[in-house]
Amino acid sequence: MGKERGRDIGGVAAASPIWLAPIAGVTTETYRSLHARLGAALVHTEMISAAGLSRNNAKTARMIGGRCGVPTVLQIFGPDAEVMTRGAEAALVMGRFDAIEINMACPMPKVTRKSGGASLLHAPAESCRMVAGLKRFGLPVWAKIRKTEPGHHPLSTGDFVSALIEAGAGLIIVHGRTPSQRYEGAADKDAVTAMAAKFPGMISASGDFYAPDDAKAYLDGGCVSVLAARGAMRDVFLIPKTLSSLGFPTEEKYLNMSPPEQINLLAETVREAVKNEGERFAAVMARKLLSGMLKGVRGAARLREDCASHRDWPSLEKALTAFAIAE
Ligand SMILES: Cc1cc2nc3c(=O)[nH]c(=O)nc-3n(C[C@H](O)[C@H](O)[C@H](O)COP(=O)(O)O)c2cc1C
Question: What is the CATH number of the domain that holds 301?
Answer without folding.
Answer: 1.10.1200
